[in-house]
Amino acid sequence: MHQHQTPEYIFITGCAGFIGFHLAKRLLDEGYYVLGLDNLNGYYDPQLKLDRLSILKRHPQFSFVKGSLENLELLESLFEQYNLVTVVNLAAQAGVRYSLINPHMYIQSNLVGFTNILECCKTYHINHLLYASSSSVYGDNKQIPFSVNDRVDNPISLYAATKKSNELLAYTYSHLYKLPATGLRFFTVYGPWGRPDMALFTFANAICNQQPIEIYNYGKMKRDFTYIDDVIESIYRLMKKGPLADQAVPHKIYNIGNNQPVELTDFIQILEKEIGKQATKTFLPRQPGDVLETYADIDELIKDISYKPLVTIDEGIPQFVKWFKQYYKIS
């Protein structure tokens, strides 16, 4: 009798973004129904978002809606219309440096928008909300590696402050309404179809076009570069595992990182080797909002999903460069 039942959907916000696209693709390949929302904003080249989207649209089990999280009426209509069981909130105004220029975008998207998501998840009794946080919440944390048990009360950028706020809001909803929620603190994610505002992309672009690259803090920065496939595998396993239903407050945060910080200069060296060109380097002082080192303690993640990110930058950067050259038709 059940042939008319509406299928269960996974709702991914920011589905045309870097992580959202890869996650949607993985879920569709695994046979899930996916509803994607994205406002396709112009923070970086929308063509890249449209190209990602066109790949997702080849799947018959994918539905797309163009819109923003700030539009509560639209969100409510989607929760009303679709049988949504899991929500993965990856839509946000991204970028640390841009938050210095356009603070209001961050408040709208990352706070107002996220609160709308929480309200809908509460009202429609969603099984599990997974949401993007960021390693930037650690600020200039003196404890290395960064543990999810560390206090994160000192953000050094507005972007980081909005992500920390997301964690606080999600915790409150979990506490008050037993909303099962999982926070994902991503550490410098890179790979094919990546974000053009991220270092790897801007460096590759400049090196290919023989333009100088700007290296902040004279290259004395370390980042826990995490390859996209490792990130997706981690999210996928956390989804499969489901929320912490047995706890008084069903809320948990994980570091999604590679657990291997790399100095920026080493990163650039591998990139140069892959592209086959030397970079012209301009060394500059540290930028406001930039953190000196990121390093993820992933013990909790390994314990809960039996998975550890595996891809080193020696393996990951070549994958990115291969995609980059194909996509931009660079011989």
UniProtKB/TrEMBL annotation:
Domain of life: Bacteria
Residue span, NAD-dependent epimerase/dehydratase domain: 10-257
Keyword presence, Ubl conjugation: no
Protein name as annotated: NAD-dependent epimerase/dehydratase family protein
Lineage start: Bacteria, Bacillati, Bacillota, Bacilli, Bacillales
InterPro entries to which the protein is assigned, alphabetical: Epimerase_deHydtase, NAD(P)-bd_dom_sf
Keyword NAD assigned: yes
Keywords linked to the UniProt accession: NAD
